[in-house]
Amino acid sequence: MADRDLLIDRRDLAAVERELSSLCALAHRELGFRLAEAISYAALGGGKRIRAAIVCEAYRCAGGRSDPSGLAAAVELVHTYSLVHDDLPCMDDDDTRRGR
Fold this sequence. Notes:
It contains 4 helices and no strands. By secondary structure, it is mainly alpha-helical. The protein starts with 9 loop residues before the first helix and ends in a 13-residue tail after the last helix.
């Protein structure tokens, strides 16, 4: 790892963030503006990306040789969905997530 305090290599983090941005740009091209904005807000709102770090390291430990950022971004999106779903009125009805 480049920096033990980050838990994720800076290059991996940058690659995952680029992948998430690319997926959000795709949402803007394919979906309505309001839905795409909501997706971008939730997906790009920060977080430590610990799941992404685990995916990248597990991929390499299992012998993976190519860029795992797409897979890591997918895991981040599934996690983000679970957070948004949990905040719905029928669940815990939270007004904020990650201080926003």
